[in-house]
Design brief:
Radius of gyration: 20 Å
Shape: elongated
Distance between the termini: 28 Å
Structural class: mainly alpha
Number of strands: 0
Number of helices: 11
Order of helices and strands: HHHHHHHHHHH
Length: 248
């Protein structure tokens, strides 16, 4: 019979969690994003998808991709964030839900803050969308600098809001970890990666984003989730993971 102390022994230390999840994995994603841009992979992919005869990306105007990958997707993090906030609020009235409160608040903070931050950052970065480049059917040259204080000079594409909406589901990985549910943890990771990659691919196919712009979104959303879950996961090292009952 497993020892009841086993979950506590497997709980992460604050230093280990910070170095691996807050710093380490975030830096790996940042390096991938930087490499995709500086290696020329961004432009190689965009040129492969661009049709010089039509002077446009063939899937730019796809109705299905526009509906599913552009319009509907933004409701995902907002819906999940509001649902999590609802669970946290209800936990003050329903005692059985109290163990869920910390994880629910962290999920809500990740999803809602992520979309707000991405929306603001793209007004201060100059990298444009592929279909806006003058070499890919657009009107603007490739910028020489990343940052701008003037919104009129912003490219409006870095980081990708739609990729960020998918990668917001990475918060489910941390939620499963915080609640001591391994199946939820790894299932949440699979959902977050699949959603982020899926929506990234849709926007790349449409010529709306470079690969690096979607990877920056992944780095940002992972960082936010790791930070918001820090007190919920690493802050409970001594007591071990929360033991929670089913939501019923």
């Amino acid at each position: 019979m497993p020892s009841p102390l086993l979950p506590a022994l497997r709980a992460p230390t604050r230093v280990w969690y910070f170095l691996t999840h807050v710093v380490g994995l975030t830096l790996i994603l940042i390096c991938l994003a930087w490499w995709a841009k500086d290696s020329g992979l961004d432009l190689q992919i965009a040129r492969m998808l661009f049709d010089p005869v039509r002077d446009d990306f063939p899937l730019h105007g796809s109705r299905w991709l526009e509906l599913l990958g552009h319009r509907v997707v933004l409701a995902l993090p907002i819906g999940v964030g509001l649902a999590a906030a609802g669970v946290a609020a209800a936990s003050y009235r329903i005692p059985a839900w109290r163990p869920w409160r910390g994880a629910a608040l962290a999920v809500a903070a990740t999803c809602l803050t992520g979309q707000l931050l991405i929306n603001q950052l793209k007004h201060h970065t100059t990298l444009p969308r592929p279909y806006d480049l003058d070499t890919l059917g657009g009107y603007t040259p490739y910028p020489l600098h990343w940052w701008t204080w003037g919104r009129a000079r912003a490219g409006g594409a870095l980081p990708s809001g739609h990729a960020g909406a998918g990668y917001a589901m990475l918060s489910l990985y941390f939620a499963g970890w915080a609640l001591g549910r391994p199946a939820w943890r790894w299932g949440g990771l699979a959902v977050g990666v699949a959603a982020g990659l899926g929506f990234s691919v849709v926007r790349i196919l449409q010529g709306a984003h470079f690969l690096s712009q979607t990877l920056w979104s992944a780095a940002l959303m992972w960082l936010l989730a790791a930070v918001f879950f820090y007190p919920v996961i690493a802050g409970r090292t001594a007591a071990g993971p929360a033991r929670v009952p089913p939501l019923s």
